[in-house]
Amino acid sequence: MLPSVIRQLESLKETSTYLLGKLQENLDQSDEKLRALCEEKESLEKGRFQFPKNAIDLKQAIISQIKAKTGENAEVVLVAEAAEIRNDRWRNAIEGYLNTQKFYIIVPPRFVRLAIRVFDRIKRDKAVYDTGVVDIEKILDKHYQAEANSLATEIDTDNQYVRAYLDYLLGRVMKCDNSEYIRDYPISITDEGLLYKNYVVRALNPKLWRNPAIGQNAIALRLEEIKYEIAAEKSVIETCSSLKIGAEACKKLDSYSQNDAERFVNTAEHVLGCEKYQDEITALEQERDTLDTGNLFLLREKVEEKKREADEAERECGKLREQSGVVKGGLDVLREDSIPKSEREVHEKQRILQESFESEWVEEYGEPRYTLELSKREQALQIAEAFPREKSRAANAVKRYREDLVSLRTKYNTDYKMGYDVNSKDNDKFAEALRIINENTLPDYLTRIDDTKKKAMEEFQEDFLSKLSDKIRSVKREIKELNYAISSASFGEDTYRFTVEANKEYERYYKMITDEMLMGGYSLMTNQFNEKYREEISELFSVMTDEGNSSLDQSEYEKRVCLFTDYRTYLTFDIEVTNKEGEKQRLSRTIDKKSGGETQTPFYIAVLASIAQLYRMGRDKKANTARLIIFDEAFSKMDGERIEKSIYLLRKIGFQVILSTPTEKAGDIAPWVDRILLVLRSGKTSQVTYFDKERVGELINE
User: Do residues 134 and 105 touch, judged by C-beta distance below 8 A?
Assistant: First the structure.
């Protein structure tokens, strides 16, 4: 009996020691939690909300880096601290739908790239979750507008960038008074957190809005809640403290050895053996002998049986406690690690889907097709496995289209001297450039093109044909004057006359240009003239504007313009020769049959007539000009007879002529000139001297 009692005492002390450790651990945890709650309460009472440490650390790092790089104090905020919920009825829905997105960081658009670099550096040093940097630059480029009756309308903010982000996130999440109307919108939510999205109805976890964080009203709500949490922790501390006192008392029980216990028993027996207790002992023994112990033995057996049952139940409870601990641990892992991790992965995949596909395509085609394919299979992975060839073809097509896109972007940058990123995943910059061109530049260009075309037509109508007409009239007048200049002169027995006629190839245009209606004050705008030459006007205008001939290169186009703007294109020039019998021949028909001297004669006739016309010889009786002509290597292909006739013609017209001729022609020319100058050259030295024309023959004979 004594050893059993001693063992129970020792077991009690050991259990007390274990309980003391556990109670102290719980007390320490409760004290730490109470301290944190008190600090949070003090901060809230001062109007400061305690946001997640990761978010605050990242925010401060971004602010510091912007200051170091640019010297600016940029306005960097968390979404939650720059927003305020208007109606607390929708607070739970907004807080739950945003979840960790309310702790995302908003920076001015020009600092987004810098903020991303800071985030990338920090996340390598330590794990940073449940916060992020919003690419507000791209969101602003999209110009998202919140729909009426959406969750976005329940949030106020003075920060334009936070406003844009909230319109993007919540602008299409519609408010529903109850679940009856929740399917009326692509995305909708009730004030109790029942969400309809991607054709699925689900309930948001209440823990998502357990600690409200958006706006100043969240501080008041959190203050009320934190008071209950503080009271609860204090109650836990009081209970643990009381249990600790009892455990300490059990721990302080004295420990006795086997000898001590035997000594205590002997002493007790000695005391009991005293004479003054003997009579009482005898009386008690007699009373004991008279008692019915049958029932007592039966009760003892039942007690032992119950003890055995109790021990068995205790063992079962122990097993259940162990299983409960395992289950609780699994639940803790799910709550604290697996579920948040899965939520982050889902959020990331949703973000990738949103960036990769247009929301309209997802809602109208992608999501219904996915749901259809999923209904035919047990798992989503089987969908990807079912379309290997389609996936390969799509990947090849994407790659090919991507290469074509990069090539087109590069050509655009080169042609228009732009610096857009040709490898950008989105086409926002180029799409914006196209929008600006379509909305601003293109209409302006079209207006200017129409105006230019109209002016070109007016110029063509009022100036081009008019100038051609004036040129042709002027040429005819000058030909007439040339003929007048040589009318009194002849070359031997032949007389010459210049002719100008319409070029048969362009006669239609010639008739239009020289029409009496145009010369008589009509214009292309005159209905009668326009109707008569409609076809010719259209053809000439097409030639001048290159309309309908875009395949021609620039040089060919310029040649065509030069051809049709030259008045000589519409005319044919010739020289008519009349002999003594009155027979007439055109030079254009006989020139190929004549000798070199014969072909030179018309050349001199044309030159002399032109110079005579320039000197106004014969027209102005008062003109007294020098009438000087200089010929280099004159009459080089003529014989003596023709040279004589040519000089005679020069004298008859009245020209003063200076001739330069080689030695072999000197004998033919010398008899008909007034003075001869001989040029002698030796090396680099030249000398000019007068020479008697009578000695020319002698010089030649020598």
Answer: yes
Residue-by-residue DSSP string for 394-429: HHHHHHHHHHHHHHHHHHHHHHHT----TT-SS-HH
What element of type H or E holds 631?
strand 628-632
Q: Which residue has the tokens 């803790």?
A: 332
Contact residues for 205 (Cβ-Cβ < 8 A; gap 6+)? 96
Q: Is the separation of the CB atoms in 629 and 656 below 8 Å?
A: yes
Point out which residues pair with 75 in neighbouring strands: none
Q: What pairs with residue 677 in β-bridges?
A: 690
Helical (H) or strand (E) element with 77: strand 77-78
Residue 303 banded pLDDT, cuts 50, 70, 90: low
Alpha carbon separation from 285 to 96, 277, 288, 382 (Å, rounded): 79, 12, 5, 88
Measured CA angle at 462 (ends 456, 466), to 5 deg: 120
End-to-end CA, the chain: 176
Which residues does residue 585 pair with via DSSP β-bridges, in sequence order?
577
Whole-structure pTM value: 0.34
Cβ–Cβ under 8 Å, residues 607 and 650: no
For the stretch 486-542, pLDDT in tens is 776 666 677 778 888 888 888 888 888 787 776 554 454 466 777 787 787 777 777
Q: What are phi and psi of 575, to 5 degrees?
A: -120, 130
Q: Residue 176: what pLDDT?
A: 92
Is residue 603 within a helix (H) or strand (E), and if so which, with residue range? Answer: helix 596-614
pLDDT one-digit tens code per residue, 36-90: 767 766 666 665 666 788 888 888 888 888 888 888 888 999 998 888 888 888 9
Distant-in-sequence, close-in-space partners of 680: CB < 8 Å, separation ≥ 6: 686, 687, 688, 689
- How far, in Å, are 397, 408, 412, 457 from residue 415 at the CA level? 26, 10, 5, 30
Q: Half-sphere exposure (CA, 13 Å, Cβ side) for 436? A: 7
Confidence tier at 14 by pLDDT (50, 70, 90)? low
| Strand 194-197, strand 200-203: pairing | antiparallel
Distance, in Å, from the CA atom of 363 to the CA atom of 186, rounded to the nearest integer, reads: 8
* Distance between CA atoms of residues 645 and 630, nearest Å: 18
Of residues 201 and 519, more confidently modeled? 201
Cα–Cα distance measured from residue 136 to residue 166, given in angstroms and rounded to the nearest whole number: 11
Strand bridging mode 571-578 / 495-502? antiparallel
Type of residue at 324? S
> What is the DSSP-derived secondary structure letter of residue 83?
-
Q: Are the beta carbons of 578 and 497 closer than 8 angstroms? A: yes
How many angstroms separate the Cα of 583 from the Cα of each of 573, 578, 592?
20, 5, 19
Distance (Å, rounded) from C-alpha 156 to C-alpha 342? 31
| Distances in whole angstroms, Cα of residue 619 to Cα of each of 495, 498, 514, 604 | 20, 18, 27, 21
Other Cβ atoms less than 10 A from the Cβ of 513: the count is 26
Q: Average the pLDDT over each of 202-216, 593-607, 681-695 and give the range with the smallest value.
A: 593-607
Query: How does strand 84-85 pair with strand 155-156?
Result: antiparallel
C-alpha to C-alpha distance for 210 and 229, rounded to whole angstroms: 12
pLDDT tier at 271 (50, 70, 90 boundaries)?
Answer: very low
Sign, Cα dihedral of 224, 228, 229, 233 = positive
Q: Provide the pLDDT for residue 338.
A: 77
Distance CA 568, CA 145 (A): 67
